[in-house]
Prior knowledge:
Layout: H1 2-10, H2 13-19, E1 21-23, E2 31-33, H3 55-69, E3 77-83, E4 86-92, H4 95-102, H5 107-121, E5 127-132
Parallel strand pairs: 4-5
Antiparallel strand pairs: 1-2, 3-4
Amino acid sequence: MGISFFKKIFGGAAENIAEGTAPISVATDKKVPQPKLNAADFADQDKGDDSPVSLAGLEAFVLYVVQALVDEPDQVTLQTVEKNRINVIQIRCIKKDIGKIIGKSGKTISAIRALVSGAAGRTGLRVTVDVLD
Length: 133
């Protein structure tokens, strides 16, 4: 069904993709072998296991990202506190690294918060991230 749909839209190019060869560019029409993909390649992705995201896993993610951003990764510490049914992951680091975590106009910390709250929301947790002095 999917291949016939693409045949209608793209002509014979869908057959080339299904066969494992596709043109590099329209001008040369030179064929390059493409890796064959089958359902087994995506078996662990398609299982649909919505394994619960743990608070410890979210803390590990935040610690990994923050340590990659700062100059002194050994000085980064995390603490999780619960305030009004919301878990708050508090980041502490040396003063010169705070700006690297926050980012220009707060975009970096905003992105970290979005990723953490999105992952936590899948399991019904409410989690946010704060940077402390």
